[in-house]
């Protein structure tokens, strides 16, 4: 951070601090709150001006009314509580548990292996296997890096290694792939 002008940063900090202090600190006025008790009104007595003290303004003496005594309210004792007897636990019925229930073995039939086809580009698409081969009967090859697809009639169909296979050209178009023929005309 050698590009920062540190003297300017420090100046901005000091100015901000000075403004914050100046705007938050204000003169304190000494005021004595005078509250009258609602029970007894305060008798108005003429204020007697006092002499100025040590260069200050003359002050007035204010007399406060005595507060009335508080009224005690007798507390009502709680009503006695009645203890309810707790009954015994409810009777339970024992359920017999058979430790070794009889089991019937069901023979497992041989299952046919179904190839898993990952539709990475929607229905009608499948990922190519490691060697580039695809499902039987699927003839449209696709390259994910160029988003182009190749059909068996294209001259570059055989050397192209497929990254994705499509069931037909409509599936490739739905996956937003462009035919190789159209891309070759642009160049």
Structure, explained:
- The structure is a single chain.
- The protein is an alpha+beta fold and 187 residues long.
- The protein has a domain at 125-181.
- Helix content is 17%, strand content 8%.
- It has helices spanning 6-24, 169-174, 180-186; strands at 125-127, 140-143, 148-150, 164-166, 178-179.
- Strands 1-4-2-3-5 form a 5-stranded mixed β-sheet.
- A hairpin with a 4-residue loop joins strand 2 (140-143) and strand 3.
- The longest helix has 19 residues, at 6-24.
- The radius of gyration is 48 Å and the shape is flat.
- 10% of the residues are buried.
- The model has no long low-confidence stretch (mean pLDDT 76).
Strand order of the largest sheet: 1-4-2-3-5
Gyration radius (Cα, Å) is 48 Å
Inertia-based shape? flat
**Main beta-sheet annotation:** 5 strands, mixed
Low-confidence stretches: none
Order of helices and strands: HEEEEHEH
Number of helices: 3
Distance between the termini: 49 Å
What is the oligomeric state here? single chain
Structural class: alpha+beta
Give the integer mean of the pLDDT values. Answer: 76
Helical residue percent band: 10-25%
* Range of strand content: 5-15%
Task: Compute the number of strand runs.
Answer: 5
Could you provide a short overview of the structure?
The two termini are 49 Å apart. 17% of the residues lie in helices and 8% in strands.
